[in-house]
Amino acid sequence: MDPDCNSIFSRPDSIVAILFQGSNIVETMLLVPGRSQSQGTSLNKGKLKDEYLVVTATAELNENDMRRLKLVDGDKIRLASEVGQTVVACKAKKQDDLPEGMIFIPYGPSSSQLMGSDTAASGMPMSKHMEVSVEKVES
Amino acid sequence: MPEPNQPSPKEKNKNIKIVKDATCTFCGCVCDDMELTVDLDEHRITKAKRACVLGRAWFYEHTLEDRPVVLIDGKEATLEEGMDVAAQILVDAKFPITYGLSDCTCEAQRIAVDIMDTINGNIDTTTSVCHGPSGMAFQGVGESTATLGEIRNRADLVIYWGGNPAESHPRHFTRYAVTPKGMYIPNGKKDRTVVLVDVRKTPSTPVADIFVRVKPGKDFEVLWALRALVKGKRISNDIEEQTGVSREMLDDLVYRMKNCQYGILFLGMGLTMTRGRHFNSGAIYSLAADLNEYTHFVAKPVRGHGNVTGADNVVSWQTGYPFGVNFNRGFPRFNPGEFTTSDLLARGETDAAMIIASDPASNFSKKAIEHLAKIPVITMDAKETHTTKLSKVRFAVATYGINTGGTVYRMDDIPISLRPAFDSPFPTDQEILEGIRQRIRKLLTGSKARTAF
Amino acid sequence: MSSELIIVNGQVYDPANHVDGEVKDICVRDGKIVESVSKSATRIDAHGMVVMPGAIDIHCHIAGPKVNLARKLMPEDHRLDVHPKTAVTRSGTGGIVPSTFATGYRYCTMGYTTAMEAAVPPITARHVLEELDDTPVIDKGFYVLLGNNAFLYKLLKEGRKNEFKEAIAWWVNAVHAYTVKLVNTGSDELWKGRKNANITNVNENIDHYDITPVHVMESFIEAAHELGLPHPPHIHCNNLGHSGNISTTLDTMKAAQGRRVHMAHVQFHSFGGELNKNPVSGAREIIDYINDHENITSDVGQVMFGKATAMTADAPLAWMLRNVKLDKWVNADTECESGCGILPFSYQEAIYTHTLQWAMGLELFLMSKDPWRVLMSTDHPNGGSFMNYPKLIKLLMDSAYRREALSHLNQKAINKTVLSDLDREYTLNEIAIITRAGPARALGLANKGHLGVGADADITIYTEEEDREQMFNAPRYVIKDGITVIKDHEFATDHRGKILHSKPGYNEDIAGEIEPFFEDYYSVKFSNYAVSDDYLHLHEEIPTHPKS
């Protein structure tokens, strides 16, 4: 219904930081943790079981972002915020489904590592839309 | 509790039991139309008719695990020893807290609040990191709302905002709000317009007649613009640049909202967990209220865990406040940010924690988790979690709704009684909490604290 | 082991047994009033004190979903009125809508030992019973909202009166209610289905059903009569708060055709004048009709100045108030059963309508010829908190105090009433009737509201004081089920009251008629709807007296 709004950012320069560390590109993106079906089904098996741990450690990125960062499905990326960092696998999503500059990850131990503790007197940490840096991790 | 039906003759040898109209407590939909086939020899549910994918995982995966009932400092102990140590930890603590409670029965929740009242502790539920902000918005502006059956019977405009029910509440569409036929919705989905508002496309998107993509963190601006347009006020020309939503789209939504017969705005955690938090929920409640000048309009948070709504209700009726309640002074006080668990832990203020049916060691901020690892923690959970792993006293409990009866509240405050499928050798949260309550009373006898009920 | 108690030297007010201030011993054994006790019985010397049965609130809103929403809605109100725990009682919060524990204790601290929650959508009955179980000391029951019930309307539309009666009995049993409640009959369908419309005339057809509110009310009154419910239909009339609503109220009372009916909070239904103009008092017309018709019982629904909360199944009314006072507002639609509206409110001395309502309530009390049928209530929290009862008693007992109070109010409104001319002062005996014996009789509670042998030992002992507000605010002793819960003004122990409910007989075949309707239009399974006996905890079934 709104074809002009495929990117979450109206201007390309909103991608605030592009740094180079060694040979890998580091970009700042927006992390959106949320529920997913496989997260829901796997947590019933057990939160310490492999399936849940894999599901909650797999992030979805826009296909264009993946290409630019030289990533393919299954590659490891390091996500870092001002409070912590975590290494997760990545998976490509189509431009129409997930806008450029946005990362989706099922809630879990990985996303918690990146979440700040300030709740702005609400009790609720800023659990979605965290600014994180993204960087490929060579295996 | 009515007796479950007798097994059919051919299943007789297998020791199979059928439980009709059982309730799934995995998500806030609390569907009460499950037909469970229970293998009593294997102690497991082998079939869950009408359950969604999440419900099937819930029923099939909750089997009897080979775990000790109680571990103290990682060593096996008796139930009595566990309750003794737990009571002593809570009584000795200067600032004990209880957290969780969304995946247990109201009967257990009522005891948990009593314990914290008795020892001047702090009680909080997973609401604070779920729709706590919506609870705060409710305190500010109120809410026009409805039970899910009313939505089924009457809603011709259904708007989901910041949620992905297809993955989080799979039967929300099919049992309650989109496809079912209702009293004044004879053709089901054909008689409804479904709108989905989100920052990304999700498996829920295909159900929508209209998909609205909002820039992340701009929900408040879109909601406020809609309020202005509903009231015939001017809005900024650059609304699309700001929010990603075009003026044409907003005008179309306003027209639909004002002219529907019965409209509903469902709100998800896409509103409460992002920039704006309770302001977002307040904006959506206010929009729904405003629309009542023109038609009938309601709003409803799509609540998460099976009985998180029950926890809200119990804590509210016992204390007057829905979550984040502190008894340090001998009476309830409420202050989100001060008495909410995430903050208490991150600031390192508490010296003991009782965590019931939740996993903050996995879901909280790094700082909060670090503090949790430093203090004595008592856990009650049907499964192993990151939190049970770091606890001093861990109780393995029976699963509510599968092994126990009791009361749960659906996301729309409808109370439902559970029908257990098979017995568990593990105690219930309620039994353990009752044991701890009795022990605390004994320990406090002769002190100034309340000692009798 | 039996526990015995004897109260000696007190002035006893027990109107049901024609005891009017005589000094008389009251004996208690195992929670009941008995003829005599042994010498070892615990003795309370009530010299200089007034002994009355425990008081009964026949109409209040203290438990359930709407009450809990109102609690959640007003943290600012709780903060100002905390309720600390004691060595024997739980903590809570007060304000206009207290927490459950505070509600029970605070009723007790005024000498109340029974209170009836007046409006419960049946689908929420479990919630109500859970809250009532957490409401200490007092006995309690609830009235189930059936007056806008979609299935019952369908039966009436089809003219199936017998099934209608059976279904009412099924519902009362299924949820453990005390009696049936009707609120703004017929309005729900218009509110939800016709963009927030309301019924304005009780003789107009309800959308989709070809029946009128009067027909619905008549049918309920007749069915309840045949079922012999201990308390007749408890009716909140249509057009509450609208100028000129006395004609609706009179039409409703006439619909009873001589059968028993209870008119709830009649003050709110005694507005004279013309629609959309300022109301005038219609108290005279209403009280004359009630005085002349012994089939009618009523509670006044007095408004008291200060904080209140509109909390009602009458959603259009709450919406009307919301548009007067643009504050936070709650609306809650319950499928097939009810509507609900909640908003914070306050009654102010300077405001014409508020003063008029205050004066109308007092007019009703002071012009009542039969205190047994015009009973005390503030429709808590709609007219003000139940904590206002002692002040209201003083207003009724002390005409000098009343005159003084009058002088601070909106005189334009006072002049629209005859209150200045009413010098009547209630006696202690009459107070005992409107707060104890009368509600018990109206409710059909044979063991309550009196101190005769066999009655429940629910007893209040007040130090007699000239200032009746002070006196009724703080009983010296409150005895519940024979246990001294308040002793020398302090809680001596906690106590659990019981649920009062009725079980009218019915033909179980009716369930087979109701079930398909559930499958089509409810969001819960029929088999999960009826509330099991587990939720009753301590309870007492009050007998019905069926007519056939």
Describe what is shown at a glance.
The complex is a heterotrimer of chains A (139), B (453) and C (548). With 139 residues, chain A is an alpha+beta fold. Chain A has helices at 37-45, 50-55, 63-68, 109-112, and strands at 18-21, 24-34, 58-62, 76-80, 85-93, 102-106, 130-137.
Keywords:
heterotrimer; B: 453 residues; alpha/beta; Rossmann fold; Dimethylsulfoxide Reductase, domain 2; 3 domains; 9-stranded mixed β-sheet; 5-stranded parallel β-sheet; C: 548 residues; TIM Barrel; 8-stranded parallel β-sheet; 7-stranded mixed β-sheet; 22% strand
Question: How would you characterize this protein structure?
Answer:
- The complex is a heterotrimer of chains A (about 140), B (about 450) and C (about 550).
- Chain A is α+β, with helices and mostly antiparallel strands and about 140 residues long.
- In chain A, about 20% of the residues lie in helices and about 35% in strands.
- Chain A contains 4 helices and 7 strands.
- The longest helix of chain A has 9 residues, at about 35-45.
- The two termini of chain B are about 30 Å apart.
- In chain C, about 60% of the residues are buried.
- In chain C, a hairpin with a 2-residue loop joins strand 24 and strand 25.
- Chains in contact: A-B, B-C.
- Chains B and C meet through helix 3, helix 4, strand 8, helix 5 and helix 13 of B and helix 1, helix 2, strand 9, strand 10 and helix 3 of C.
SS class of chain A: alpha+beta
Order of helices and strands of chain A: EEHHEHEEEHE
**Largest sheet entry of chain B:** 9 strands, mixed
- Beta-strand fraction estimate of chain B: 15-25%
Under the CATH scheme, which class of chain A?
Answer: Mainly Beta
Shape of chain B: globular
Q: How are the secondary structure elements laid out?
A:
The complex is a heterotrimer of chains A (139), B (453) and C (548).
Chain A: E1 18-21, E2 24-34, H1 37-45, H2 50-55, E3 58-62, H3 63-68, E4 76-80, E5 85-93, E6 102-106, H4 109-112, E7 130-137
Parallel strand pairs in A: 2-6, 3-5
Antiparallel strand pairs in A: 1-2, 2-7, 3-6, 4-5, 4-7
Chain B: E1 16-22, E2 34-39, E3 44-49, H1 53-61, E4 70-72, E5 75-77, H2 79-92, E6 96-100, H3 106-118, E7 122-125, H4 132-141, E8 142-146, H5 148-154, E9 157-161, H6 165-168, H7 171-177, E10 193-198, E11 210-213, H8 219-230, H9 239-243, H10 247-259, E12 262-267, H11 269-272, H12 278-291, E13 296-301, H13 308-319, E14 325-326, E15 333-334, H14 341-346, E16 352-356, H15 360-363, H16 366-372, E17 377-381, H17 386-389, E18 393-396, E19 407-409, E20 415-417, H18 429-444
Helix pairs in contact in B: 2-18, 3-13, 3-18, 4-12, 8-10, 8-12
Chain C: E1 4-8, E2 11-14, E3 19-23, E4 26-29, E5 32-34, E6 42-45, E7 49-53, E8 55-60, H1 65-73, H2 75-79, E9 82-83, E10 92-93, H3 100-109, E11 112-120, H4 125-133, E12 139-145, H5 150-157, H6 161-175, E13 179-183, H7 187-193, H8 213-227, E14 234-236, H9 246-255, E15 261-263, E16 271-272, E17 280-281, H10 283-292, E18 296-299, E19 306-312, H11 315-324, E20 329-333, E21 341-347, H12 352-367, E22 374-375, H13 389-397, H14 399-406, H15 411-414, H16 428-443, E23 459-463, H17 468-473, E24 477-480, E25 483-487, E26 490-491, E27 499-501, H18 510-521, E28 539-541
Parallel strand pairs in C: 1-6, 2-7, 8-11, 11-12, 12-13, 13-14, 14-15, 15-18, 18-22, 27-28
Antiparallel strand pairs in C: 1-4, 2-3, 4-5, 7-23, 9-10, 16-17, 19-21, 20-21, 23-24, 24-25, 25-26
Helix pairs in contact in C: 6-8, 9-10, 10-12
